[in-house]
Amino acid sequence: MDDAMDSLMRGRTVLVIAHRLSTVKSADTVAVVSDGQIAESGTHDELLDRDGIYTALVRRQLQGTKNET
């Protein structure tokens, strides 16, 4: 499924709204929307380095994954 989506999105501008952060991890640009405003934007790695909202979401999602196992 991921390979099919990657193939469809290649060479196009695509807006993805995702709850699973793994969906946007390889995006060229990730925008974090909070209270109707873009609060942060950048690559996955850039946003993690900023230790902001995106980082908190990643940590929360990873913690949830650990609790499910």
TrEMBL record:
Source organism per entry reads Ilex paraguariensis
- The name of this protein is Uncharacterized protein
Q: Which InterPro entries match?
A: P-loop_NTPase (IPR027417), Type_1_exporter (IPR039421)
